[in-house]
Design brief:
It contains 12 helices and 8 strands. By secondary structure, it is an alpha/beta fold. The relative contact order is 0.11.
Length: 340
């Protein structure tokens, strides 16, 4: 088993308030390994705070996205493995040791992905929902051929450089640059998910932020990427059962009030049909609901199930719109070539 060196790279834009906890945790976990903060043009004291805490710092002259910041970070370290950590994620004490051990034990390992833990810091409903949804999804995901996630994800540096790193031109702001990198890393070796490799998320989510991120920053670009790759993985929130759940989510939203009205009006047939739709939705998502109930209680689980139907509805619509746009674009391209 060959020794393996690890560096921690943290892209941090206007994160001065978060870094005292984030960087301190990374330094403790690193046990002397390099911790590099890349400041892509912050307007606050991010770089100064990181330096005062004891991290190495690279300052960029203008605003850049996390993809380019991470690429520059990798260029400034010279270790076998680079562990990327987001600037709003507090690593657990064993994170660097787990990464180091995993790459030492498996020379064919190219990337290792972690997850959020089940204790997000912000108490708001949307912060709890978004983090627990991520936590649940990653803990039920396939361990092998895993999708890469840069919130807490490690990659062998030589493989990262061989595929050209993150595509900073295509993804100039936070989107799915990590997922796209994972596709290009696949041919080079094993991609694993370790759900015990965990961080605590500090981000505060709002309703509008949740919907915008789900559609604009995640759903639409990920759909386009899947269409380009020609495959929809049966994993994460794209499992077959969740595709069915997304298809019936609009019906579940309608069935809930309609079923109650039908029951009061004595329309038992309509009420029974509405109940069937709701039971199907609950059955497809029973594990998710049960986990939320265990972690946060039945009341939270009920509210989360209701919003999850809204999430599934707009996510499904996003997929359909992107698929139609992709098909229409392909047809136009084919027609243009035929006229030449």
């Amino acid at each position: 088993m060959s020794p393996c060196s690890v560096a921690v790279v943290i892209p941090a834009y206007n994160a001065a308030q978060l870094l005292p906890e984030v960087v301190a945790a990374a330094l403790r976990a690193s046990e002397g390994a390099p911790v590099l903060v890349v400041d892509p043009g912050s307007s606050d004291d991010t770089a100064s705070v990181a330096e005062e805490l004891g991290a190495e710092v690279v300052r960029l002259p203008r605003r850049e996205g996390p993809a380019r910041a991470r690429n520059i970070g990798v260029a400034h370290v010279n270790t076998d493995v680079v562990l990327f950590v987001d600037s709003d994620c507090v690593v657990r004490a064993d994170v660097v040791r787990r990464v180091q051990r995993a790459f030492e034990e498996d020379p064919k390992l190219v990337s290792l992905t972690g997850s959020y833990d089940s204790t997000p810091r912000d108490p708001g409903f949307f912060s709890q929902y978004m983090n627990l949804r991520h936590h649940f999804t990653h803990h039920r995901a396939e361990r092998e051929s895993a999708t890469f996630w840069a919130g807490c994800g490690a990659v062998r540096r030589e493989d990262f450089l061989a595929v050209g790193g993150f595509d900073a031109d295509r993804f100039p702001r936070p989107q799915i640059e990590d997922i796209e990198l994972g596709y290009r890393l696949r041919p080079r070796g094993r991609a694993r998910l370790d759900p015990a490799l965990q961080v605590t998320h500090l981000k505060r989510w709002t309703l509008l932020g949740t919907i915008y991120t789900d559609i604009v920053e995640r759903g639409a670009p990920w759909t386009r990427l899947m269409l380009e790759q020609g495959e929809v993985p049966n994993d994460l929130n794209l499992r077959a059962s969740q595709r069915v759940a997304a298809a019936i989510a609009p019906l579940a939203l309608v069935a809930l009030p309609c079923g109650l009205v039908a029951l009061v009006a004595g329309e038992l047939g309509l009420a029974a049909a509405a109940l069937a739709v709701l039971l199907l939705s609950l059955g497809l998502q029973r594990d998710f609901i049960a986990e939320l109930a265990r972690l946060r209680g039945a009341g939270f689980a009920a509210r989360a199930w209701l919003f999850h139907q809204i999430h599934l509805s707009y996510s499904g619509l996003t997929f359909v719109c992107c698929w139609l746009g992709y098909r229409l674009g392909a047809a136009r391209d084919s027609g243009s070539k035929g006229m030449l």
